Amino acid sequence: MQKILGTASARAVSGREAMLKRHDRLLQSLSNSNPRLAHSSSTALPLEENNDALIPKMPQFDYTPPPYTGPPASEILKKRLRYLSPSFFHLYTHPKILGTASARAVSGREAMLKRHDRLLQSLSNSNPRLAHSSSTALPLEENNDALIPKMPQFDYTPPPYTGPPASEILKKRLRYLSPSFFHLYTHPLNLVDGKMQYLFDENGRRYLDAFGGIATVCCGHCHPDVVEAIVNQTNRLQHSTILYLNAAVAEFAEALASKMPGDLKVVFFTNSGTEANELALMMARLYSGSHDIVSIRNGYHGNAAATMGATAQCNYKFNVVQTGIHHALNPDQYRGVFGSDGSKYAKDVEDVIAYGTCGRVGGFIAEAIQGVGGILELAAGYLPSVYSSIRKAGGLCIADEVQSGFGRTGSHFWGFEAHGVVPDIVTMAKGIGNGLPLGAVVTTPEIAKVLTYRCYFNTFGGNPVSTAGGLAVLRVLEKEKLQENAFAVGSYLKERLTSLKEKHEIIGDVRGRGLMLGIELVTDRELKTPAKAETVHIMEQMKEMGVLIGKGGFHGNVFRITPPLCFTKEDAGMSPPPPPPPPPPPS
Ligand SMILES: Cc1ncc(COP(=O)(O)O)c(C=O)c1O
Hints:
There is one protein chain. By secondary structure, the chain is of the alpha/beta class. It has three domains: 1-42 and 66-97 and 223-272 and 438-478, no CATH class; 141-215 and 482-572, Alpha-Beta Complex (Aspartate Aminotransferase, domain 1); 274-428, Type I PLP-dependent aspartate aminotransferase-like (Major domain) (Aspartate Aminotransferase, domain 2). Helices cover 36% and strands 13% of the residues. It contains 18 helices and 18 strands. It has helices spanning 2-31, 47-50, 73-83, 107-121, 140-143, 166-176, 212-215, 224-236, 247-257, 273-288, 305-310, 342-356, 382-392, 445-448, 464-479, 482-503, 532-545, 569-572; strands at 191-195, 198-201, 206-209, 266-270, 293-296, 325-328, 363-367, 369-370, 376-377, 396-400, 425-428, 439-443, 507-513, 516-524, 529-530, 547-548, 550-552, 558-561. Strands 4-12-11-10-7-5-6 form a seven-stranded mixed sheet, sandwiched between helices. Strands 13, 14, 15, 17 and 18 form a five-stranded antiparallel sheet that branches. It has a four-stranded mixed sheet with strand order 1-2-3-16. The chain is globular, with a radius of gyration of 27 Å. The model is unreliable at 1-13, 33-49, 102-109 and 115-143 (pLDDT under 50). The structure holds pyridoxal-5'-phosphate. Pyridoxal-5'-phosphate is lined by residues 214, 272-274, 277, 300-302, 367, 371-372, 400, 402-403, 429.
């Protein structure tokens, strides 16, 4: 048995080495302008020229793609070999660039939609779960106009909405979508348009978006540059597969790698934050040869097998097998047992390794600012010390930048940079695509090699549309200096919120950086009793005023302010107009 296993693993290793050598040879040949890549001077004549009679004729098709002006295959291949996973293989000796595809009508789909429509028509109107749709409370505007802050001027009117009303959508949602879905607000919003930091409901009412689709919209809703990149790419080619070359994915990988410190230069694309973290955890386990992972309490990393294990809040955990994860004390500066002393919390990680594992670990994963956990910034000094303990125990350090990346924290492009550490693996999603389903894992070439042991494959990860959009997002962030804006506007807003804390007992804590801010509400400042009901009430009132914010934290008593990074000082400064001057004394 041992012999069989030994032979199998030897084969895997030698296969991997052979593949890496092949890649090295390819790269070498590229830099030497190997004639194999310049297909015009190929030694083997293409089939067409050898024997024309043998070539099947293509059916007639009336479409000529626009001229291709992107980089040539050899250049894309060079970037792909340098910045994308070494586990990727491609079809053909001379891989093809697929630039354009043309759509065909699918009549079967139309028939299916008609069937759905007929079904929907037969839906009964009486669903008791929809009973709360007739409001009893007057909207705030009608109650007291003087209290309503004025929205900053914004020169945009959305087109008229012609879709179904909120009540109808809700009915379908309740009937056809997961019963686990919840919605914000007693009367859930039907948002139909978005423009930069504003959202519009079905009646054209404008809302200031201070939540950003959960820290996801970074450039602004429907930013024209991002939309243009998506539309252009969709018009040319929506999907091929990573088995062919495409410029969008290689160029985005290069651009992302340029934002990374040290040797973090190899990118794997995924479709979500969960997928990115799953992959990162698997790579850490493969690289280290250890299964045990340390994560911290109150963290959120996703909802698949390994990531649900690493997530440490019971609200997000189901009763399914989640092995090999150890949850260390949270370096929570507001509620944590050691206050802001990062070194004391870091000692707990040493203890977890010493008493909870065999002394070796696969890795450590943490957010620099816990988002779902209520915008909690890890205590200073914690990460450098923990990274050192984890590395001593043979593990890799993973920075989960799903919420805190892409300039959101203002002071830095990545959240981990504020702690003076360089991770071994960085994961990202949300802001990376301004709303596109896109995630990524960035690591070193050496760690990336672990995926060459077997085939690692992700059908949509790194698809042309998402990566073209992602590249446009990076360019907008730079062109519009959105990280700098997050710093300036975020600092101003935090200052204002902190001054509110002096006036209102209910505000227990104001925290965060840039445009990732949290306000924790408590009914008793000493006991830090979570003000859950009050949080829900204020959120409802703010919505009536036209301001959308998020909420989170273990107890659901923390406002999360994570707007698009184009949020302005005028948006941040929205406050009720001053009370009217007292009437003049009677003369
Ligand atoms: C820090 C963090 N990591 C991972 C995830 C999971 O990302 P996704 O929902 O895209 O799977 C989230 C989602 O909120 C997150 O906040």
